Amino acid sequence: MRHPNEPATAKAKLKRRSLITAGAALPVLAAATPAAAQTTITVEPGTVQQTIQGFGGMNHSVWIADLTAAQRDTAFGNGSGQLGFSILRIPVHEDRANWSREVATAQRAVALGAKVFASPWNPPAHMTETFSGGKRLRYDMYDDYVQHLNDFDQFMASNGVDLYGISVQNEPDYAHDWTAWTPQEMLRFCRENAGSIGTRVIAPESFQYRKNMSDPILNDPQALGNVDIIGAHLYGTQNADFPYPLFQQKGGGKELWMTEVYHPNSSDSADLWPGALDTGEHIHRALVYGRFQTYVWWYIRRSYGPMREDGQISKRGANMAHFSKWVRPGYQRITATANPQANVYITAFKSGARIVIVAINKNTAAAYFPFTVQGGGNATVSTWLTDASNTLAAYSSPTMTNGSFGAQLPARSIRTFVIN
């Protein structure tokens, strides 16, 4: 089966995504001024940014084959050779006959501690109508659509899967092959109907984090009261558009999720190196500048995805795993020197006394940095490395003394540091 991100049934979408995600050369944010070599990387555990809900990906058993039992464990287990994913996204099929197809993977994900959320591409056909922009949900069917979403939520619950949340619509602003929603239609539904949905509500899942889809929700107290998670996709989103000041101003008590992306493209092998480091940088930018609480890939198993078709972790997947295996749900992102040198990216987290630092060096030469953890003591620092010849390999363990240690970031590498 093909899906709307791949050729034939939706060539236009593949072309659109290939073009807008092909910019592996993303411009550096103006605020991230490169510093001199050996700039001290300072980690501030006392300055908390956002709580991380997890990392994960999509399973869609109608468009491609379901994950096998072994692949479910690779995706959601956190042992050696596993991705440590803590989020699964599944579709709300318009045809109820397909609902059962998503159960087995969702059940295993839940058993391994993951959250499961769902996104619809279309309502049942009788609820839609055609208009000049394509297909939309009939206005007189909004209540029926709520019932459809609630029925799916209850179906999954009856099979042991309590959905963490459900989306109103996948990519309402890029709906060539599915149901379109205008910003005002999304606002109306969130204001008048979403309060009757029996689980957390996710909206609007814009394909490119277009704020014109989510601004109206944030600016309407009644609609915002019915929405729990502002969800967005990052296909071709420019660096300058990652921050969302309006959410920081008005989104108190709500969550901010990045619910779908592949980066930088769907054409290259996920094992291409050093190209796979673009994935690690993109996660860094989503967490640090976008302040997202999740990072969710498109297909979990795909030639361009975190898991290869043979069920093994790809280099892109290893970049994700440098976060997902050690930054678990409930960890908090903390302030750290984000860009101590050109093409070097630092993201830091804490859980209690544990500190996790993910460091990416995209340069062709190794770079040495002193690290200072404010308020830190003495500890052995465990580290793992992925580069051209290593994948999630245990690496040298520096000693932290009075909160300070030094470490080298090998050329074209991603390295995770864990301080207990």
TrEMBL record:
Protein family: Belongs to the glycosyl hydrolase 30 family.
SUPFAM superfamilies named among the record's database cross-references: (Trans)glycosidases, Glycosyl hydrolase domain
UniProt GO molecular function: glucosylceramidase activity
GO biological process: sphingolipid metabolic process
Gene source species: Glycomyces luteolus
Full protein name: Glucuronoxylanase
InterPro entries documented for this protein: GH, Glyco_hydro_30, Glyco_hydro_b, TAT_signal
Keywords for this protein: Hydrolase, Signal
Nuclease is among the record's keywords: no
Signal sequence region: 1-37
Coiled coil segments of this chain: none
Annotated Gene Ontology cellular component terms: membrane
